[in-house]
Amino acid sequence: MASAFRPLLLFLLLLPLSVTANLHKSKTLLKSSLFSSTTTSHLNDTPPTTYFEVTKPIRLPKTQPCVYPILHHDFGYTYGKPPVLAEYIPPSHCPSHDFSKIVLEWSATCKGRQFDRIFGIWLGGVEILRSCTAEPRATGIVWSVKKDITRYYSLLVKNQTQSLAVYLANLVDRTYTGVYHVNITAYYYPAEKKFNDFESNLENLASGYGSRADLILPISRNFPLNDGLWFEIENSTDTEGKEIKIPQSVFRAVLELYVSFHESDEFWYGNPPNDYLLAHNLTDTAGNGPFREVVVTLDGNVIGAIWPFTMVYTGGINPLLWRPISGIGSFDLPSYDIEITPFLGNMLDGKTHTLQFHVTNALNVWYIDANLHLWLDGKNTYTEGSFFSIRSISSTGWVKSSHGKITTKAIQKFSYANSMVMGNNGNVQMVNQEIRFDDSVQVKKPYAFSKENKSLKRFLIDLYSNDMDQGNRTYLSVANVMLGFNENKFGVRGAGFRMPVSSLENLQNGQGIKVVKNKLLVSGVGCTQQKYKCEGNKFCYFRNISSSNYTILNDEVGNACN
Ligand SMILES: *[C@@H]1O[C@H](CO)[C@@H](O)[C@H](O)[C@H]1NC(C)=O
Ligand SMILES: *[C@@H]1O[C@H](CO)[C@@H](O)[C@H](O)[C@H]1NC(C)=O
Ligand SMILES: *[C@@H]1O[C@H](CO)[C@@H](O)[C@H](O)[C@H]1NC(C)=O
Ligand SMILES: *[C@@H]1O[C@H](CO)[C@@H](O)[C@H](O)[C@H]1NC(C)=O
Ligand SMILES: *[C@@H]1O[C@H](CO)[C@@H](O)[C@H](O)[C@H]1NC(C)=O
Ligand SMILES: *[C@@H]1O[C@H](CO)[C@@H](O)[C@H](O)[C@H]1NC(C)=O
Ligand SMILES: *[C@@H]1O[C@H](CO)[C@@H](O)[C@H](O)[C@H]1NC(C)=O
Ligand SMILES: *[C@@H]1O[C@H](CO)[C@@H](O)[C@H](O)[C@H]1NC(C)=O
């Protein structure tokens, strides 16, 4: 099998069942990435290393934020336990209750040895952050994730007690000693007149959704559970989801999906076809080929799909690549929006409908849930709609509300290319994959130009890996990886006047070498280079940064637009 992945399997085979079950949850050897010994003699004198993901800073209004510490928790042995809960009620001490920005901050420290752990944060069942922990060092690490959660506004300011749930399945024993000490804080920035203008509209446009939804319904699992609120999709026939009923005054609906892949499918883009595995007698190796599609259905009919970004978690491929610069998206996994307004005609009957997910070719396990963002008509309490056609994943429908009869056309276009070369009985692997994933939403009101928002995404991954058995349960692994996330957004007015909204180019290259003995990483080194460039109207941010062996070599940050 894939070179990088093979040791993982050997690893799993060596483990007692109970631990396998845990690893099964969220780990592979690729992530196991731990030093078996430390060479540092002054563990307590050395300051902790700060890890970070390169991304643009959140643009904040100039107002003073109200700070709300929501949760402090030490995640020790949390595996198989219920999510950690905090009571959430919007802050009453703020002078204003009109906020233009709400930011969630996760900050954590950890020391010792630990896997990278996937975790989620849900408010009232609505997922607001999916992330992966950083892997600690003996001398300790610290990192923080800041996320603009303003799009969940209606939920965040709801004047009632809701539960905020955090699930992070950690396991602590003599070997895996890292406990995650976590603070979760929210910052509420009161609206500033100036900020509420054209620029912020453009920013809304850039974020892919217009004004905030009036109501957000969770499509996630209910309590009680000893797990995350996400659904677990274990194979290609497994279908999970929920029954929902929406108010009859809805005139727009967007489904936001959170997706992450683990265990046998953590490196799905490198999974060989089953034929190859059979021919090489690799029966214990993850297969099903390198194509995956997350499909969303409404009452059994396809309404949209996601071809996910090939994220690499902080312990993936070679953990030394992601210290201190974390992999693209690993600290703040992208969520994906699907415009489902065209289907409102089918949903506005006051009856219950079934929203479900499945994953083409899935192997165990995918964590998926969704948030249904709904815009309500303030004047009509009843809207009516009709659905016209669905051809592949193109859909058109109309909704009549106090805004008039609005026809919405949503189109998703996908393309995919993967080439995989394997040699030396699966110990050498070269994968090159590109996904193009385009969404467009066109809205037409009577007697007005149509307006279209388009997003063109390109997800790239190139992986070279070579594992060399050194005997004595030791192997040497060389891995190079290129990871890219590009997105172009623009608006189209009428018959073709194009307005650029934003563009993002985010590219990482990494080269690593590691020596792994019995499941522990004993030595190695990783180098990473990243170029990040994000441009919007009157907004630009770029960063050119590289690191080697935990040290930043160069770091250039700019915000000048050409
Ligand atoms: C969490 O907050 C406490 C109290 O403010 C602070 O002492 C601690 O350093 C914080 N920890 C992290 C990881 O931010
Ligand atoms: C929230 O609800 C409480 C009790 O119902 C009420 O006293 C308070 O004024 C409300 N706060 C806001 C900001 O509406
Ligand atoms: C496009 O974005 C604008 C600005 O955020 C928003 O008002 C509009 O509803 C969006 N249009 C569509 C068709 O999604
Ligand atoms: C797929 O997963 C579901 C849910 O765990 C299970 O019921 C079903 O038997 C599995 N199907 C196959 C073919 O393994
Ligand atoms: C495949 O592997 C199994 C288990 O190691 C072994 O018993 C069997 O002989 C192998 N078959 C071939 C065709 O190599
Ligand atoms: C194999 O590993 C054991 C334990 O780590 C060590 O004592 C031994 O010297 C190693 N043998 C070789 C040939 O490297
Ligand atoms: C990034 O920095 C490296 C090292 O300083 C330099 O060689 C490279 O040209 C820079 N790239 C860009 C796009 O600025
Ligand atoms: C990495 O840096 C450490 C010190 O932080 C040093 O001891 C080690 O030799 C370096 N490794 C490589 C391969 O450069």
TrEMBL record:
Signal sequence annotation: 1-21
Statement: the UniProt record of this protein carries the keyword Signal: yes
Keywords from the named record: Signal
The Peptide N-acetyl-beta-D-glucosaminyl asparaginase amidase A N-terminal domain, residue ranges: 64-387
Protein name: Peptide N-acetyl-beta-D-glucosaminyl asparaginase amidase A N-terminal domain-containing protein
Lineage per the UniProt record: Eukaryota, Viridiplantae, Streptophyta, Embryophyta, Tracheophyta
